[in-house]
Design goal:
Helices cover 2% and strands 25% of the residues. It is built from one helix and 40 strands.
Length: 479
């Protein structure tokens, strides 16, 4: 099971500043009246995305950006609204990264920050009602994430917690480890790693990714032992960013749109493209965006995802107190949200029983088929990541997908791996394994380049601006 510790760390950080929390594209978006840099200048294409500004990197939470020595949420922080240091005027609020007179419909003003109180851990249900650092906010109430239990004021994974192994208060003896909810003197089960007495899957554990103590931050998740951004997001300044919609990182990290422009399909322009909605200064498909679902700023929480403009639980799970759980195997919600199994019982096929039936394995009170379970593939706690499936107890890519790096991808549609692994389309799309360039871009050496702003292809392919020059409106000029 994927650890919740890294998420808890992010929430702790989130509570330390007004702007903390949730937008997957947290890289600097300018206010409507100003550019990110002097004159609204574009950064050099391919600028380093990994080095945060103003000093060493911080462990910022998902959706946060390092501004000086603090992590802030640029979509809501009135002191850094849209970009670091861009403060809203007195009486204004920061709504979706833009200083405004009032919050966007559906958002609540909390000390100048416009937040979704149904999902904001610092303002859960109401302003200044903060969840604990190990909790999430679901439907306006603080709760433990799916798979975790409330044990004496803390959310713990009883499958791995040596102080609460298998049940709250069941502590393992000195020298023992907690493996699949059972104290063991013989070490962790195959496929798990001993991290201070907790047996974890270091290929999928966000708090121990690749090695004990290596935590994934900035919205990254642990994928086959490496912290990576999900889907088509890119790591910009330590935060996972949607470069197809972020005006501060449009088409690539550090490529800023000019004042008043928006970013649509990775290209700066005056208006959003078809099928997208302007949310602040980002062009969003609100039918499928987990942080702007059905309307700007509407965050899907508790494990829900955005489908057809509605936040829904993934197939096979239901919402219990706002958190998506699998009632077929969850001993806290076995068969129904309100049905908890006794401490000596397990949950099998939605019923509490004394032992798991043949063909299933007891994984901390859940009876699972380790031949097919995504979170217990081949053994308890071994999670398939990167879009892989569990077949015969082994994580594999679906038949029509190709493994590129740590992820399974459809090379006929993936703009980062179009036709073959690592064949990136730049700001273009991938259609039937061929890169297709959007308006305002040109196919240059197999990559769709924003020739109006690309200093390596300024105005046309191969026209490189001189050192110190920038590309603006397709022409090289001095900064």
């Amino acid at each position: 099971m994927r650890s919740f510790i890294a998420l808890a760390l992010g929430v702790v950080l989130a509570l330390s500043v007004v702007g903390c929390g949730d937008d997957d594209d947290g890289g600097g978006t300018p206010d409507a009246g100003e550019g990110l840099d002097a004159g609204g200048m574009d950064a050099t294409v391919g600028a380093d995305s990994g080095a945060p500004p103003d000093g060493g990197p911080l462990a910022c939470a998902e959706g946060e950006t390092q501004c000086g020595s603090s992590c802030v949420r640029l979509d809501a922080d009135p002191a850094s609204c849209g970009a670091c240091g861009m403060a809203c005027a007195s009486g204004e609020v920061c709504s979706l990264g833009v200083c405004s007179d009032a919050c966007e419909t559906g958002l609540t003003e909390c000390s100048g920050a416009c937040v979704d109180v149904d999902a904001d851990a610092a303002n859960c249900g109401a302003c200044d009602t903060a969840c604990r650092g190990d909790q999430l906010c679901a439907d306006g109430a603080c709760a433990c994430a799916a798979g975790l239990r409330e044990c004496d004021g803390a959310c713990v994974d009883v499958a791995a917690d040596a102080a609460n192994c298998g049940a709250c208060g069941t502590a393992c003896a000195s020298g023992e480890v907690c493996s699949a909810g059972v104290c063991s003197a013989g070490g962790c089960a195959t496929g798990l790693t001993d991290c201070s007495g907790a047996c974890v899957d270091s290929t999928s554990d966000d708090a121990n990714c690749g090695a004990c103590g290596t935590a994934c931050t900035g919205g990254t998740t642990c994928t086959m032992g490496t912290c990576e951004c999900s889907g088509t997001l890119e790591l910009c300044g330590g935060t996972c960013v949607d470069t197809t919609a972020d005006a501060g990182n449009c088409g690539g990290c550090g490529i800023a749109c000019a004042a008043g422009e928006v970013c649509t399909a990775g290209v700066c322009g005056a208006t959003c493209g078809e099928g997208t909605t302007l949310c602040g200064l980002r062009c969003i498909d609100t039918t499928a965006h987990d942080r702007n679902c059905g309307a700007c700023g509407n965050v899907c929480g508790g494990g829900t995802v955005c489908e057809a403009s509605a936040c829904v639980c993934p197939t096979g799970t239901v919402a219990c107190d706002g958190v998506c759980v699998d009632t077929a195997i969850d001993p806290l919600h076995c068969g129904a949200c309100t049905n908890a199994c006794e401490a000596i019982e397990v949950c099998a096929a939605g019923a509490c029983t004394s032992e798991c039936p043949a063909g299933t394995t007891n994984c901390a009170g859940s009876c699972v088929d380790v031949q097919t379970s995504l979170e217990n593939c081949g053994g308890c706690g071994i999670t398939c990541t990167g879009g892989s499936l569990c077949e015969a107890g082994v994580c594999v890519c679906p038949d029509t997908f190709t493994q590129c790096g740590n992820r399974c991808t459809d090379v006929t549609r993936d703009p980062r791996n179009c036709g073959a692994c690592e064949n990136a389309c730049g700001v273009g799309t991938c259609e039937e394994s061929v890169c297709a360039c959007a308006g305002g871009t040109m196919l240059c050496d197999g990559v769709c380049a924003p020739v109006q702003r690309d200093p390596m292809n300024c105005g046309t392919c191969g026209n490189v601006c001189a050192a110190g020059e920038r590309c603006r409106m397709g022409a090289c000029e001095a900064p």
